[in-house]
């Protein structure tokens, strides 16, 4: 089963159009079919433009294999250290078995998607060093297994949602968001931010 989808680090640019991932029926769990034994798919240091296909050729132990269908679920997606821009695509909200997401060091804009709160198995979420704006969605308080969170170096504002889970993270998880306030930060909401 494909467990890790890794596009980091590359110099991919532009908006991340991965809606095709949601249409690949083979990626949805299907108890009637055998699952692939592929554990890690990594695209490292590609040059040129990005092309998305329904088939992919990979090399494993000097054998070239064409995978027409990529089976089952992702448990980790890493697209860090690229130049993806625009909002984070909603297709990522469909992967309910995800344990780790790393979207750091890109140029994502817009607010942090509320659909992250539906990824109940998520243990690690790194959105650092983007241009995310707005408040942290209340839905992130639903992530009971989240043990690593990095929202640093964005443009987040307002109070950190009150929940036991989000208050367990250190202040370092939220650094360099001048208008963010509330525990675990020292800046109380309604007061001028500490710079």
UniProtKB/TrEMBL annotation:
<keyword id="KW-1133">Transmembrane helix</keyword>
<keyword id="KW-0433">Leucine-rich repeat</keyword>
<keyword id="KW-1003">Cell membrane</keyword>
<comment type="similarity">
    <text>Belongs to the RLP family.</text>
</comment>
<protein>
    <submittedName>
        <fullName>Uncharacterized protein</fullName>
    </submittedName>
</protein>
<keyword id="KW-0675">Receptor</keyword>
<keyword id="KW-0472">Membrane</keyword>
<keyword id="KW-0325">Glycoprotein</keyword>
<dbReference type="Pfam" id="PF13855">
    <property type="entry name" value="LRR_8"/>
</dbReference>
<dbReference type="InterPro" id="IPR001611">
    <property type="entry name" value="Leu-rich_rpt"/>
</dbReference>
<dbReference type="GO" id="GO:0005886">
    <property type="term" value="C:plasma membrane"/>
</dbReference>
<keyword id="KW-0812">Transmembrane</keyword>
<keyword id="KW-0677">Repeat</keyword>
<dbReference type="InterPro" id="IPR032675">
    <property type="entry name" value="LRR_dom_sf"/>
</dbReference>
